[in-house]
Structures are given as structure tokens and as C-alpha cells.
Amino acid sequence: MKKRIIAAVTAVCMMAASMTGCTEAERATYNVQKEADYFNVERRLSVINARTDKPILELIGYFSLSNNSDNELVITLEVAENQYKVDYVYLNNWTIYTVEDISGAHVDPYHYEINFLPEMIQSIKFTQNDRGDV
């Protein structure tokens, strides 16, 4: 009888622990996402045209990423101490994106880089005239 009670209590405790506990991977994912939202994780965002397999945009830096109800990626970047910039990337049926952690040692915590990659975008050249106007 005593062994049955111990076995039942052990089974109940194991079930409770498995239902309320989380795995180490879940904890790590949560922690990394939280650190990224505090601009502590360098990442690379790649947006790709799924129909042509061509990259459309690449962003490298410290940023927070979320989706909004307008089918857009909301990218928040810290560009200086207590100064932020928000960029939006519209997603449709033909665009996909990936985000990868490329953390490393960088001296500049406000480092970021955006690359527009498709060949169809025409380049624009800005020149300055003698008066200093653009």
C-alpha cells in the first residue's frame, strides 16, 4: 500500500512538472528574443521574393522585430543612445523573410546596415552644385 501511494504521488508530481515546466530550448529562445528586443543581439534580416528567389532587402544590426496587423514587419533600431528609428517592410504572398543571429563583438552598439538588393531598382546619384545645394 505504501509503495502504491509513493508511486501515485511520484506520477502526479511528474505530470505536474511536465505540464508547467518548459524545456531548456524554450527558455533559451525566450531569453534571446528578450535580449534582441533590448538591442543586445546582432542579427541579419533577409527578405526574399519567393517567386524569383531573389533577395529584396538585407538588414544587419541590432534591432527588434515584430509583425503588425497590416502584414508588415516592424523593425525598430536604436541608432544612438535613447534615439530610435522604425522601418516597415510590407509582406505579401511572394515575400518571405528569415532572421539569423550573427552576434559577435562589435564596439559600436548602434551599428546597422540596410542593403536593397534587387537588380530592378534603378540607382540614384546625388550630386552637389556650386552653391552647395543637393
Architecture overview:
By secondary structure, the protein is α+β, with helices and mostly antiparallel strands. It has one domain (2-116). Helix content is 25%, strand content 38%. It has 2 helices and 6 strands. The chain has helices spanning 2-20, 24-37, and strands at residues 42-49, 54-67, 72-80, 83-90, 95-101, 112-116. Strands 1, 2, 3, 4, 5 and 6 form a 6-stranded antiparallel β-sheet that branches. The longest helix is centred in the N-terminal third of the chain and has 19 residues, at 2-20. The model has no long low-confidence stretch (mean pLDDT 78).
Quick overview of this protein structure:
By secondary structure, the protein is α+β, with helices and mostly antiparallel strands. Helix content is 25%, strand content 38%.
Oligomer: single chain
Percent of residues in helices comes to 10-25%
Order of helices and strands: HHEEEEEE
Low-confidence parts lasting 5 or more residues at pLDDT below 50?
none
Radius of gyration based on Cα positions: 24 Å
What kind of sheet is the major sheet?
Answer: 6 strands, antiparallel
SS-based structural class? alpha+beta
Shape: globular
Mean pLDDT: 78
Structural domain tally: 1
Number of contiguous helices:
2
N- to C-terminal distance: 90 Å
DSSP summary, beta strand count: 6
The percentage of residues in β strands lies in 35-45%
